[in-house]
Design brief:
Layout: H1 10-17, E1 23-24, H2 31-41, E2 53-59, H3 62-74, H4 79-84, E3 89-96, H5 101-124, E4 128-132, H6 140-143, E5 152-161, E6 163-165
Antiparallel strand pairs: 1-6, 2-3, 3-5, 4-5
Helix pairs in contact: 2-5
The structure holds flavin mononucleotide (FMN).
Flavin mononucleotide binds at residues 19-20, 131-133, 156, 170.
Amino acid sequence: MSKATKTTNEVRNAIQNRRTVKKFKKEAVPTQQIIELLDTAVWAPNHKLREPWRFLLFTGNGRKKLAEAIDAEMGEDNKFSANITQVPAVMLVVLEEDPRQNIWDEDFAAVSALVQNFMLAAWSEDIGTFWVTKPFLYAPKFRKPLGIEAGEKIIGMIYMGYPDVIPSAKERTPAKDKVTLFE
Ligand SMILES: Cc1cc2nc3c(=O)[nH]c(=O)nc-3n(C[C@H](O)[C@H](O)[C@H](O)COP(=O)(O)O)c2cc1C
């Protein structure tokens, strides 16, 4: 249990106690379970129900395909691709970009909400997650072999697996310090 305060509210507890997990056990996470977690995550608020997302899921031997795409951009001597084949499952979350700025902003927000939903739902089933963003996610040499088109933005890589180590909580600034109150 983290240092986060325990309340009697399950949703609040789930939000406060989820931790970013970077060390996973080797055990695979069932693909069917990941899909079911996504089926929960897609209940994220999204304007006009545009559902502006798609997912690339890498498990088992499929993780080599992701490692090869990283190598194509970074060269074979890089720490990411070796590491990524040790992570039980990795999912790229992709935003289907709208050229209109206001729609793009809404859709980016919606996909971010989906990712948080996914991480919370996973945590509630003892699956740890790590939201990873790296410069190579923007590189054509990385994107092309994975079929990620122009007009698609990778929101992040979500590493997942059963936690080997759960880090302690990093405290947050009390909200009252960030609130400008009008009453
Ligand atoms: C958009 C986004 C990108 C992130 N990218 C990274 C990353 O590349 N490397 C990393 O160590 N953590 C990354 N994180 C995780 C944060 O560092 C982590 O959420 C933060 O330290 C708080 O820890 P907690 O999630 O356990 O509360 C990212 C989080 C978000 C929301």
